[in-house]
Amino acid sequence: MTHSFSYTHYDLDLQRGGTVVEITLSAVANVRLMNHANFDLFKNARQHKFLGGVAKQSPIRLKIPESGHWHVVVDMEGHPGKAQSSIKVVPLAPQKPAQRFSAA
Fold it and tell me: Residue 99 domain-assigned?
């Protein structure tokens, strides 16, 4: 079983806990920050846990709670239209430039 709604997926790969993810949106959308196991559940339309929720302002910033493989999903479930999104990972070490990710 898969979702009846479309979504934009960003694979953040391995990230350190405490890293901030900044998501910029063009419209109200749902934003879900999930670890790899929960993303697998999400892909199969199963119950999953995530950080985030309905993003009514942009950008929103979410903090990765623990080191591991992380994913961000932006979807329009329950919202009209389509939101454009972009994502930036702000590293813990301020001397490094921010990593940018494109949708998968």
Answer: no
Q: Is residue 103 part of a domain?
A: no
pLDDT tens profile 40-71: 999 999 999 999 999 999 999 999 999 999 99
Q: Could you tell me whether strands 85-90 and 51-55 are parallel, antiparallel, or unpaired per DSSP bridges? A: unpaired
CB 12 within 8 A of CB 70: yes
> Which of helix, strand or coil describes residue 72?
strand
Query: Could you tell me if residue 102 is inside a domain?
Result: no
| Full domain range(s) for residue 34 | 7-89
Number of structural domains (the chain) is: 1
Predicted structure pTM score: 0.84
Instruction: Give me the DSSP letters along 6-53.
Output: -EEEEEEEEE-TT-EEEEEESS-EEEEEEEHHHHHHHHTT-----EEE
Q: How far is CA 98 from CA 11, 86, 88, 92, in A?
A: 15, 13, 7, 10
